[in-house]
Design goal:
alpha/beta, Rossmann fold, 2 domains, nucleotide-binding
Length: 240
């Protein structure tokens, strides 16, 4: 359960949500994505309350990837990516040249064009996540809300997926809110980090501000040290 908080999220940046299990990260991103009803307070987007938005206009602005993605049995990669165009023409609308162009561009940007005729279920975890991101790119929204997109991936695929998110932010000017369990991945890929604890926002700042021994102990309740990455210089944490 989230406690009262007041935040404004800047566009064209990657904003990471971190915290212990049950801290409220997924609840917050579900509220932002209109996947969970508000029980109090207000959330505004583009000058309107979320409850004032109709579903399809909102989906043209905000794309959401849940932690548990839907079943895609029997679906081709190209078919899944094409679902991203639904907010623009509806279930019965004609799939036009613009839709085809957006789908092709999304697959190219996420490097999944070579999988287009493969069944989604035959792909590796990292490949599947890139296909889901391609669907969000085809949606042509201004914001991506990602709930633990790397939770089931090995380290190599985590880096691959988050590097893609970073590139999409820079090349497409997207705003991203992403829930992450790994504070080191957040420090490496996020512009700003929001730390939650027991439903409360307890810290907000750049990776340099958040990844410090005192802040990490407050967030996770355990003693942690911090060092500099030898190549990039960003802060890297470890348990003492």
């Amino acid at each position: 359960m989230l406690q009262p908080l007041t935040i404004a999220l800047p566009a064209r940046r990657i904003i990471g949500l971190i915290g212990h299990n049950g801290s409220g990260k997924s609840t917050l991103i579900k509220l932002l994505a209109r996947q969970q009803p508000l029980t109090g307070g207000t959330i505004s987007f583009d000058g309107k309350g979320l409850d004032e938005w109709r579903s399809r206009p909102f989906a043209r602005k905000v794309a959401y990837l849940p932690q548990q993605t839907p079943n895609t049995a029997g679906m081709l990669v190209s078919e899944l990516v094409a679902l991203g165009r639904y907010p623009w023409h509806g279930a019965l609308g004609r799939f036009g040249l613009q839709d085809n162009r957006m789908v092709e561009e999304a697959m190219e940007l996420t490097d999944v064009t070579s999988y287009r005729d493969r069944l989604v279920e035959t792909l590796s975890g990292g490949e599947r996540q890139r296909v889901w991101l391609a669907m969000l790119v085809a949606q042509n929204a201004d914001w991506l809300l990602l709930d633990e997109p790397t939770s089931a991936l090995d380290i190599a695929h985590q880096v691959e997926v988050l590097s893609l998110v970073r590139r999409l932010t820079e090349e497409r000017g997207l705003g991203v809110v992403v829930v992450l369990h790994d504070v080191n991945m957040a420090a490496r890929f996020c512009d700003e980090i929001l730390a939650l604890h027991s439903g409360m926002l307890i810290a907000r700042g750049t990776p340099e501000d958040i990844v410090t021994p005192n802040q990490l102990q407050a967030i996770y309740g355990t003693r942690m040290g911090v060092m500099r990455h030898p190549d990039t210089g960003h802060p890297v944490s470890y348990v003492r």
